[in-house]
């Protein structure tokens, strides 16, 4: 799934605070968005392994939520929603396509690394690849709570949805462009270009 889909899902998760603790809704929605994006910061490293922890984020998010319920504050609520959003991002990557520059070709058997079991989880391909039409549809659905209820963050939600739309429209062409650009790089720089 697109990083923006994960961010919008995290924001929708944080929007639950509107109904249980509205005074923390803005911080929860923002933390959900950041938590949804956070695991994809490993794009420059070993993607879907370095910062993707489907089991460990979940294990830490559970006591974080208990703390937020018993001692609510901006910090405890933000931490709990951030961790839950990062956990859901990491786990939901298994629902998409595998790694690789062209995941729509379904050539990879690696979706996300499970550190707890020391193995790669295979892709389920419910969302065929990041930027697929169904990915954009999911992103749009997760944007609804932010657009309707998060007045302070509506612009962010709409910007993420706009970026999702542009990416989905250009997704397959971006690979060809990127490969063409990589072919023109000096040998010293080409070694830093990720191959997956």
Could you describe the 3D structure shown?
- It is a single chain.
- With 196 residues, the chain is mostly helical.
- It has one domain (3-190).
- 59% of the residues lie in helices and 3% in strands.
- The chain is built from 8 helices and 2 strands; from the N terminus they run H-H-H-H-H-E-E-H-H-H.
- The chain has helices spanning 3-14, 17-20, 25-37, 54-70, 74-92, 133-149, 154-183, 187-190, and strands spanning 112-114, 119-121.
- Strands 1-2 form a two-stranded antiparallel sheet.
- The chain is globular and about 55 Å long.
- The two termini are 15 Å apart.
- The mean pLDDT is 93.
Helicity range of the residues? Answer: 55-70%
Q: Are there runs of 5+ residues with pLDDT below 50, and where?
A: none
**Largest sheet report:** 2 strands, antiparallel
Number of strands: 2
Mean pLDDT across every amino acid position: 93
* Terminal CA distance: 15 Å
Question: What is the domain tally?
Answer: 1
Please write the string of helix (H) and strand (E) elements.
Answer: HHHHHEEHHH
Class inferred from helices and paired strands: mainly alpha
Using only C-alpha atoms, the radius of gyration works out to: 17 Å
Strand content: under 5%
Number of helices: 8
Main sheet strand line-up:
1-2
The geometry reads as globular
What's this, in brief?
The protein is mostly helical. 59% of the residues lie in helices and 3% in strands.
């Amino acid at each position: 799934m697109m990083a923006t889909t994960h961010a919008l899902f995290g924001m929708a998760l944080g929007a639950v605070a509107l109904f249980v603790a509205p005074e923390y809704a803005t911080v929860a929605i923002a933390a959900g968005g950041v938590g949804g994006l956070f695991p994809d910061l490993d794009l420059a490293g070993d993607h879907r392994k370095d910062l993707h922890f489907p089991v460990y984020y979940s294990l830490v998010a559970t006591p974080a939520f208990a703390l937020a319920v018993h001692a609510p504050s901006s910090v405890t609520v933000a931490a709990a929603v951030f961790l839950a959003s990062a956990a859901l991002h990491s786990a939901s990557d298994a629902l998409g396509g595998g790694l690789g520059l062209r995941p729509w070709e379904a050539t990879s058997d690696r979706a996300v690394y499970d550190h707890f079991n020391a193995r790669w989880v295979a892709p389920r391909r419910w969302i065929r690849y990041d930027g697929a039409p169904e990915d954009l549809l999911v992103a749009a659905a997760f944007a609804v709570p932010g657009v309707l209820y998060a007045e302070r963050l509506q612009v962010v939600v709409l910007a993420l949805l706009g970026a999702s739309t542009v990416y989905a429209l250009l997704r397959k062409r971006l690979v060809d462009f990127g490969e063409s650009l990589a072919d023109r790089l000096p040998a010293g720089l080409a070694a830093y270009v990720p191959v997956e």
